[in-house]
Amino acid sequence: MKTINRYIDHTILKPTTTLNEIKKLCMEAVEYNFAAVCVPPPFVRITSTFVGNTDTKVATVVGFPFGYAAIEAKVAETVMAILDGADEIDMVANIIAIKGGDWEFIEKEAATVLSLVHSKGKVLKIIIESGILLDEEIIKCCEIYGKLGVDFVKTSTGYAEKGATLEAVALMRKHLPANIQIKASGGIRTFAFAEALIAAGANRIGASASVQIMKESLAQS
């Protein structure tokens, strides 16, 4: 089993993020060899230079945090992010369409962005905001995204009232094909919780408390 650092997307997405905070995030990510850094779109280009040719990937968000941007807008954001050097795209699904049962739209949205992302050899994670969905809505998302072959289904933006839960991750794991990965994010602040989420089926952990999680991990090793 890989060590906890290789599960972590070291994240800062607040609207007041500064360049100094991005620089610090990247230095920590390289020091601890985290899987990725996840940064606001305007910082993707400079982040790519900060992490350089290390094993840490550059991730950014699209349609964040509410997901209700038009498909065309999400495509434009994705194009810009990839041009700026993003390796991974974390796109918020249209939650309005999910809650309204417009599954045709949800499939079209994902298929459109996925085609673009995969054509450039990049990774797509789709955020479903599991904390505000019914179980049957989570299951339907898993069926659609599993069929399309997205790289990850992700629990949360971290901006809803409820983030990642063991129950949501386990439900997603049960209803996703084995080759589709899960990213748990939202409220993950301890090594114990991160470990439990991984045990429930998470393949990646999105966290801003990544360094604290690492310190707790190292203290227990």
UniProtKB/TrEMBL annotation:
Give the location in the cell: Cytoplasm
Q: Name one GO molecular function term.
A: deoxyribose-phosphate aldolase activity
- Transmembrane feature ranges: none
Sorted alphabetically, which keywords does the UniProt record give?
Cytoplasm, Lyase, Schiff base
**Into which EC class is this enzyme placed?**
lyase
Q: Does the keyword Cytoplasm apply?
A: yes
Per the record, the GO terms for biological process are: 2-deoxyribose 1-phosphate catabolic process; carbohydrate catabolic process; deoxyribonucleotide catabolic process
Question: Does the keyword Cytoplasm feature in the UniProt annotation?
Answer: yes
Its main localization is cytoplasm
**Highest taxon of the source?**
Bacteria
Q: What InterPro entries has UniProt attached to this entry?
A: Aldolase_TIM (IPR013785), DeoC (IPR011343), DeoC/FbaB/LacD_aldolase (IPR002915), DeoC_typeI (IPR028581)
Which Enzyme Commission number(s) are listed? 4.1.2.4
Query: Matching CDD domains, A to Z?
Result: DeoC
Q: List, from the UniProt record, the residues annotated as the active site of this protein.
A: D90, K154, K183
The family database entries (Pfam families) matched by this protein are listed as:
DeoC
Pathway field? Carbohydrate degradation; 2-deoxy-D-ribose 1-phosphate degradation; D-glyceraldehyde 3-phosphate and acetaldehyde from 2-deoxy-alpha-D-ribose 1-phosphate: step 2/2
Catalytic activity from the UniProt record = 2-deoxy-D-ribose 5-phosphate = D-glyceraldehyde 3-phosphate + acetaldehyde
What protein family is recorded? Answer: Belongs to the DeoC/FbaB aldolase family. DeoC type 1 subfamily.
Per its database record, what is this protein's job? Catalyzes a reversible aldol reaction between acetaldehyde and D-glyceraldehyde 3-phosphate to generate 2-deoxy-D-ribose 5-phosphate.
The protein's name in its UniProt record: Deoxyribose-phosphate aldolase
Q: Which organism is it from?
A: Chitinophaga caeni
Question: Gene encoding this polypeptide?
Answer: deoC
